[in-house]
Amino acid sequence: MKGVKPLILAGIVAASAAVHANDLNTVIDKSSEINNLAAQSQTKIDKIADSMQGRLQQFKTLNKEIDGLAVYNAQLTKQLNNQIEEMESLNLSMDQVSIIERQITPLMLRMITGLEQFVALDVPFLKQERKQRLESLSAMMERADITSSEKFRRVLEAYQVEVDYGRTIEAYTALLDVDNKEREVDFLRIGRLELIYLTRDGKQAGSWDQQSQSFVALPDSTISQINKGLRIARKQLAPDMLTLPIHAAE
């Protein structure tokens, strides 16, 4: 019977070991399952964290865009307000321009009439050229395709040309009735002080007498000075003193 007890004890130990082995396997399995679940949870947490980080970054980006749009809208608002003010100013200017245009047209017509009267009373040099300029101005005033500003510029330009005549010396060739015969002569204009002619053969000379409104003959002694003046006016000689009679000035 002594041999039976050890066998029983060994069986108990073996059974106990088997039970402990099963429990250990169960614990290991549970632990593995827990670890797997923990890993899955961590993965979900990481995904949620990444998603939150991405959304936070997106939120920050959107905030920057909103701030930029706010600044842009403020700038646009300023530009719009400035454009509205400019439009109001332009509308006011247009109204004023209409008033000015209604006033400036009669003024230009009076200026042209005054210029015609002045030319008619002036020393009769470049008669055809000045007549054509005045006719061009009168015709221009009837044209609708030319702006009022351009018309006014041309009228002022014509006045400037007339002003320049008074401070320049000029030589030109034209036809003149000399001794009841139309002849080609050289004219010498010295400002508005003197208008002298010399026949092309160099034998006859005369100057404009404003009082009698006609040309009067000059003595032959003046012909050399007239020739000199013609050459100076044509830039063939350097400017120099001239000795000539004065009839044109009043």
Give structural notes.
The chain has 250 residues and is of the alpha+beta class. It has a domain at 169-250. 65% of the residues lie in helices and 14% in strands. The chain has four helices and five strands, in the order αααβββββα. It has helices spanning 4-121, 127-141, 148-165, 223-233; strands at 169-178, 181-190, 194-199, 205-209, 214-217. It has a five-stranded antiparallel beta sheet, covered by helices on one side. β2 (181-190) and β3 form a beta hairpin. α1 (4-121) packs across α2, α1 (4-121) packs across α3 and α2 packs antiparallel against α3. It is rod-shaped, with a radius of gyration of 56 Å. The mean pLDDT is 83. This is TonB system biopolymer transport component. InterPro entries: SNARE, UCP028069. It comes from Pseudoalteromonas haloplanktis (Alteromonas haloplanktis). Residues 1-21 form the signal peptide. One of its GO terms (cellular component) is membrane.
Quick structural gist:
Helix content is 65%, strand content 14%.
The strand order across the widest sheet is 1-2-3-4-5
Task: Kindly name the structural category.
Answer: alpha+beta
Count helical runs. 4
List unreliable stretches of 5+ residues.
Answer: none
Distance between the termini: 177 Å
User: Taking Cα atoms only, what radius of gyration do you get, to the nearest Å?
Assistant: 56 Å
Could you describe the largest sheet, including whether it forms a barrel?
Answer: 5 strands, antiparallel
Strand-and-helix sequence, N→C?
HHHEEEEEH
Beta content: 5-15%
Please tell me what the overall shape is. Answer: rod-shaped
InterPro entries: SNARE (IPR010989), UCP028069 (IPR016866)
Keywords: Signal
Protein name: TonB system biopolymer transport component
Pfam families: DUF3450
